[in-house]
């Protein structure tokens, strides 16, 4: 099991949003038993308070609940317990290094490092008031983190007879949102616009007589054109 602690200043906006976002991702990927995910603060300002209402509403827009979550502060023993301690900005990183006496085991990371944006902060919506921008940053970071920790993805199209079935398989396995369009142009956009570093895709194509067989082969070519490595079982 991989144990992850997200950390921000107050533990009422960014870190709980990341906590429940990643919990939702691993649940939809069928990976919940492989992860323990929590969040904490570097300050004592919000201890015992629930998730900030605008952050709660942003999660709810995507069908994610955060009931029962209250802010707590990081503790020195968190370093030994968790495998990864992930900060939202440089100030979080500096505080964690002081609290833990450094980072001897290389456990401290910034979230956007996993989105291919090393050194960038996730803007604090407490000040920016832009919870959508924060959501997008957190989504890119959490998706990149999951790609890093669980890089092998199998897209099993074998039982599919129609195009809609192919897209249903991809939506579930790739953790795409419900608004994702079911056409090759949309597929190209999302493959080139999301973060899939280190992922290896295995395709199991539909049966030879399936009406959607040739379309499934076009999907594989879209992955190849996007530079995403794959193994295809034909």
Question: Brief description of this entry?
Answer:
It contains nine helices and seven strands, in the order E-H-E-H-H-E-H-E-H-H-E-H-H-E-H-E. It is α/β, with parallel strands linked by helices and 234 residues long.
Give the topology, please:
Layout: E1 2-8, H1 14-28, E2 35-41, H2 53-61, H3 78-81, E3 84-87, H4 90-100, E4 108-110, H5 125-128, H6 131-149, E5 152-156, H7 163-174, H8 184-193, E6 200-204, H9 213-225, E7 230-233
Parallel strand pairs: 1-2, 1-3, 3-4, 5-6, 6-7
Helix pairs in contact: 1-6, 8-9
Notes on the structure:
This protein is α/β, with parallel strands linked by helices and 234 residues long. It is 41% helix and 15% strand. The chain contains 9 helices and 7 strands, in the order βαβααβαβααβααβαβ. A 4-stranded parallel β-sheet has the order 2-1-3-4, with helices on both faces. Strand 6 (200-204), helix 9 (213-225) and strand 7 form a beta-alpha-beta unit. The longest helix is centred in the middle third of the chain and has 19 residues, at 131-149. It starts with a strand and ends with a strand.
- Helical proportion? 40-55%
Main pleated-sheet profile: 4 strands, parallel
SS element count, helices: 9
Average residue pLDDT:
90
Q: Could you give the order of strands across the largest sheet?
A: 2-1-3-4
Structural class: alpha/beta
| Order of secondary-structure elements | EHEHHEHEHHEHHEHE
Number of strands: 7
What is the percentage of strand-forming residues?
5-15%
Radius of gyration: 19 Å
User: What is the approximate shape?
Assistant: elongated
Q: What are the low-pLDDT stretches, counting only 5+ consecutive residues below 50?
A: none
In whole angstroms, the N-to-C terminal distance is 33 Å
């Amino acid at each position: 099991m991989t144990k992850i602690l997200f950390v921000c200043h107050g533990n009422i906006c960014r870190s709980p949003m990341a906590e429940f976002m990643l919990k939702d991702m691993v649940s939809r990927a069928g990976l919940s038993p492989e992860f323990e995910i929590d969040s904490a603060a570097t300050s004592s300002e919000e201890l015992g308070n629930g998730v900030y209402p605008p952050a709660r509403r942003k999660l709810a827009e995507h069908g994610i609940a955060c009931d029962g979550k209250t802010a707590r502060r990081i503790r020195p023993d968190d370093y030994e317990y968790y495998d990864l301690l992930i900060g939202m900005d440089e100030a979080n990183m500096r505080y964690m290094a002081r609290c833990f006496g450094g980072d001897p085991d290389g456990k401290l990371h910034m979230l956007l490092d996993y989105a291919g944006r090393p050194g960038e902060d996730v803007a604090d919506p407490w000040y920016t008031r832009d919870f959508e921008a924060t959501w997008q940053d957190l989504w890119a970071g959490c998706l990149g983190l999951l790609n890093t920790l669980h890089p092998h993805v199998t897209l099993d199209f074998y039982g599919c007879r129609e195009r809609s079935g192919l897209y249903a398989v991809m939506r579930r396995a790739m953790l795409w949102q419900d608004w994702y369009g079911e056409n090759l142009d949309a597929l190209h956009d999302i493959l080139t616009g999301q973060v899939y570093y280190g992922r290896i895709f295995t395709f199991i194509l539909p049966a030879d007589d399936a009406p959607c067989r040739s379309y499934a082969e076009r999907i594989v070519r879209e992955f190849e054109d996007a530079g995403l490595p794959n193994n295809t079982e034909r």
